[in-house]
Design brief:
Strand content: 25-35%
Order of helices and strands: HEHEEHHEEHEEH
Largest sheet: 7 strands, antiparallel
Shape: globular
Structural class: alpha+beta
Number of strands: 7
Distance between the termini: 22 Å
Number of helices: 6
Helix content: 40-55%
Length: 208
Protein backbone atom coordinates (compact mmCIF):
# COMPACT_ATOMS: atom_id res chain seq x y z
CA UNK A 1 0.00 0.00 0.00
CA UNK A 2 1.33 3.45 -0.95
CA UNK A 3 2.30 5.70 1.93
CA UNK A 4 3.21 9.36 2.23
CA UNK A 5 6.68 10.22 3.44
CA UNK A 6 6.84 12.80 6.22
CA UNK A 7 8.01 15.43 3.71
CA UNK A 8 5.21 14.59 1.27
CA UNK A 9 2.60 14.74 4.06
CA UNK A 10 3.93 18.10 5.31
CA UNK A 11 3.93 19.48 1.74
CA UNK A 12 0.34 18.36 1.12
CA UNK A 13 -0.78 19.82 4.45
CA UNK A 14 0.85 23.14 3.52
CA UNK A 15 -0.72 23.15 0.04
CA UNK A 16 -4.23 22.31 1.25
CA UNK A 17 -4.06 24.86 4.06
CA UNK A 18 -3.23 27.48 1.41
CA UNK A 19 -6.24 26.22 -0.55
CA UNK A 20 -8.70 26.38 2.36
CA UNK A 21 -7.29 29.80 3.28
CA UNK A 22 -8.19 31.04 -0.21
CA UNK A 23 -11.61 29.42 0.12
CA UNK A 24 -12.19 31.18 3.45
CA UNK A 25 -11.48 34.56 1.85
CA UNK A 26 -13.90 33.84 -1.01
CA UNK A 27 -16.63 32.54 1.32
CA UNK A 28 -16.23 35.57 3.61
CA UNK A 29 -16.92 37.85 0.63
CA UNK A 30 -19.94 35.79 -0.43
CA UNK A 31 -21.65 35.78 2.98
CA UNK A 32 -20.40 39.18 4.19
CA UNK A 33 -19.10 37.61 7.39
CA UNK A 34 -15.66 36.49 8.53
CA UNK A 35 -15.14 32.77 7.88
CA UNK A 36 -12.08 30.85 8.98
CA UNK A 37 -11.18 27.50 7.42
CA UNK A 38 -8.38 25.17 8.45
CA UNK A 39 -7.35 21.65 7.48
CA UNK A 40 -5.71 20.39 10.70
CA UNK A 41 -5.10 16.82 9.58
CA UNK A 42 -4.50 14.82 6.40
CA UNK A 43 -4.08 11.10 5.88
CA UNK A 44 -3.86 8.58 3.05
CA UNK A 45 -5.82 5.33 3.20
CA UNK A 46 -7.58 2.76 0.98
CA UNK A 47 -11.19 3.58 0.13
CA UNK A 48 -12.49 0.66 2.19
CA UNK A 49 -11.00 2.30 5.31
CA UNK A 50 -13.06 5.46 4.81
CA UNK A 51 -16.06 3.83 6.46
CA UNK A 52 -14.06 3.44 9.68
CA UNK A 53 -13.12 7.12 9.58
CA UNK A 54 -16.68 8.31 9.03
CA UNK A 55 -18.38 6.10 11.59
CA UNK A 56 -18.85 7.65 14.99
CA UNK A 57 -18.53 11.17 13.61
CA UNK A 58 -22.24 11.94 13.27
CA UNK A 59 -22.02 10.89 9.64
CA UNK A 60 -25.04 8.62 9.66
CA UNK A 61 -26.74 11.36 7.65
CA UNK A 62 -24.49 13.51 5.53
CA UNK A 63 -24.56 16.26 2.92
CA UNK A 64 -22.02 15.77 0.11
CA UNK A 65 -20.74 17.91 -2.79
CA UNK A 66 -18.52 16.26 -5.41
CA UNK A 67 -16.54 17.42 -8.43
CA UNK A 68 -14.26 15.50 -10.79
CA UNK A 69 -10.92 17.04 -11.76
CA UNK A 70 -8.82 15.85 -14.71
CA UNK A 71 -5.32 16.90 -15.69
CA UNK A 72 -1.80 15.79 -14.81
CA UNK A 73 -3.59 13.37 -12.49
CA UNK A 74 -7.29 12.74 -12.01
CA UNK A 75 -9.28 12.98 -8.78
CA UNK A 76 -12.84 12.97 -7.59
CA UNK A 77 -13.01 15.59 -4.82
CA UNK A 78 -15.82 15.36 -2.27
CA UNK A 79 -16.75 17.76 0.53
CA UNK A 80 -18.71 16.02 3.29
CA UNK A 81 -20.54 17.51 6.25
CA UNK A 82 -22.87 15.77 8.67
CA UNK A 83 -26.41 16.79 7.73
CA UNK A 84 -26.87 18.80 10.94
CA UNK A 85 -23.64 20.72 10.25
CA UNK A 86 -24.66 21.44 6.64
CA UNK A 87 -27.96 22.95 7.81
CA UNK A 88 -26.04 25.03 10.36
CA UNK A 89 -23.79 26.37 7.57
CA UNK A 90 -26.85 27.35 5.51
CA UNK A 91 -28.42 29.03 8.55
CA UNK A 92 -25.25 30.99 9.31
CA UNK A 93 -24.83 31.98 5.66
CA UNK A 94 -28.39 33.37 5.73
CA UNK A 95 -27.22 35.80 8.44
CA UNK A 96 -29.99 37.80 10.07
CA UNK A 97 -32.69 36.19 7.94
CA UNK A 98 -34.80 33.85 10.08
CA UNK A 99 -35.54 30.62 8.22
CA UNK A 100 -37.71 27.67 9.15
CA UNK A 101 -36.32 24.13 9.01
CA UNK A 102 -38.27 23.59 5.78
CA UNK A 103 -36.78 26.75 4.22
CA UNK A 104 -33.27 25.70 5.31
CA UNK A 105 -33.73 22.31 3.68
CA UNK A 106 -34.94 23.94 0.45
CA UNK A 107 -31.85 26.17 0.33
CA UNK A 108 -29.40 23.45 1.34
CA UNK A 109 -28.67 21.99 -2.09
CA UNK A 110 -27.95 25.37 -3.73
CA UNK A 111 -25.98 26.72 -0.77
CA UNK A 112 -23.87 23.60 -0.29
CA UNK A 113 -23.10 23.45 -4.04
CA UNK A 114 -21.75 27.00 -3.78
CA UNK A 115 -19.74 26.21 -0.63
CA UNK A 116 -18.40 22.98 -2.15
CA UNK A 117 -17.52 24.62 -5.45
CA UNK A 118 -15.52 27.35 -3.67
CA UNK A 119 -13.69 25.03 -1.25
CA UNK A 120 -12.89 22.21 -3.69
CA UNK A 121 -11.78 24.54 -6.48
CA UNK A 122 -9.62 26.55 -4.07
CA UNK A 123 -7.90 23.36 -2.87
CA UNK A 124 -7.28 22.06 -6.40
CA UNK A 125 -6.17 25.53 -7.53
CA UNK A 126 -3.55 25.57 -4.75
CA UNK A 127 -2.36 22.11 -5.82
CA UNK A 128 -2.13 23.27 -9.45
CA UNK A 129 -0.34 26.54 -8.63
CA UNK A 130 2.27 25.10 -6.28
CA UNK A 131 2.94 21.89 -8.23
CA UNK A 132 2.83 23.84 -11.55
CA UNK A 133 0.24 21.57 -13.15
CA UNK A 134 -3.26 22.10 -14.56
CA UNK A 135 -6.77 20.72 -13.99
CA UNK A 136 -10.20 20.95 -15.58
CA UNK A 137 -13.14 20.55 -13.20
CA UNK A 138 -16.78 19.55 -13.61
CA UNK A 139 -19.72 21.39 -12.06
CA UNK A 140 -20.47 20.53 -8.40
CA UNK A 141 -23.08 17.86 -7.68
CA UNK A 142 -24.87 17.74 -4.33
CA UNK A 143 -26.32 14.60 -2.78
CA UNK A 144 -27.50 13.24 0.53
CA UNK A 145 -26.72 9.93 2.22
CA UNK A 146 -28.12 8.20 5.24
CA UNK A 147 -25.39 5.62 5.88
CA UNK A 148 -21.66 5.18 5.22
CA UNK A 149 -22.52 2.32 2.88
CA UNK A 150 -24.64 4.71 0.81
CA UNK A 151 -21.59 6.97 0.53
CA UNK A 152 -19.47 4.11 -0.78
CA UNK A 153 -22.20 2.98 -3.17
CA UNK A 154 -22.49 6.52 -4.56
CA UNK A 155 -18.85 6.42 -5.62
CA UNK A 156 -19.42 3.50 -7.97
CA UNK A 157 -17.84 0.09 -8.38
CA UNK A 158 -14.90 1.49 -10.38
CA UNK A 159 -13.70 3.41 -7.29
CA UNK A 160 -13.36 0.37 -5.02
CA UNK A 161 -9.58 0.14 -5.54
CA UNK A 162 -8.98 3.89 -5.13
CA UNK A 163 -6.79 5.46 -2.51
CA UNK A 164 -8.14 8.37 -0.50
CA UNK A 165 -6.55 11.58 0.70
CA UNK A 166 -8.70 12.33 3.75
CA UNK A 167 -8.68 15.88 5.12
CA UNK A 168 -10.40 17.04 8.26
CA UNK A 169 -11.66 20.61 7.82
CA UNK A 170 -12.87 23.05 10.47
CA UNK A 171 -15.03 26.05 9.60
CA UNK A 172 -15.57 28.93 12.03
CA UNK A 173 -18.46 31.33 11.40
CA UNK A 174 -19.74 33.78 14.01
CA UNK A 175 -18.22 31.88 16.96
CA UNK A 176 -19.52 28.55 15.62
CA UNK A 177 -17.08 25.75 14.85
CA UNK A 178 -18.25 23.25 12.23
CA UNK A 179 -16.34 20.12 11.30
CA UNK A 180 -16.40 18.30 7.99
CA UNK A 181 -14.11 16.36 5.68
CA UNK A 182 -12.71 16.56 2.18
CA UNK A 183 -12.04 13.30 0.34
CA UNK A 184 -9.86 13.10 -2.74
CA UNK A 185 -10.27 9.79 -4.56
CA UNK A 186 -7.19 8.79 -6.54
CA UNK A 187 -6.57 5.74 -8.70
CA UNK A 188 -3.24 4.00 -8.17
CA UNK A 189 -1.93 5.65 -11.35
CA UNK A 190 -3.10 9.12 -10.28
CA UNK A 191 -1.63 8.69 -6.78
CA UNK A 192 1.75 7.79 -8.30
CA UNK A 193 1.54 10.89 -10.54
CA UNK A 194 0.68 13.09 -7.51
CA UNK A 195 3.62 11.73 -5.52
CA UNK A 196 5.98 12.35 -8.45
CA UNK A 197 4.73 15.95 -8.69
CA UNK A 198 5.22 16.37 -4.92
CA UNK A 199 8.80 15.08 -5.14
CA UNK A 200 9.56 17.57 -7.94
CA UNK A 201 8.04 20.34 -5.80
CA UNK A 202 10.15 19.33 -2.79
CA UNK A 203 13.33 19.30 -4.88
CA UNK A 204 12.55 22.74 -6.36
CA UNK A 205 11.83 24.03 -2.84
CA UNK A 206 15.18 22.71 -1.60
CA UNK A 207 13.44 20.41 0.87
CA UNK A 208 14.53 17.10 -0.68
Amino acid sequence: MAELSELQQDALAEIFNIGVGRAASSLSLVVGNQIELTAPSISLCPLDRIQESLQGLEFRQFSMVSQRFTGDFDSQAILIFPETNALEIVRLMAGAVELSVEELSELEQEAMCEVGNIILNACMSAVADLLEIAFDGTLPVHSFGDTCNAFLDALGEESKDSMVLFLQVEMRISQHRIQGHIVFLLSVTSLEALLQCLDVYLVKSGLQ
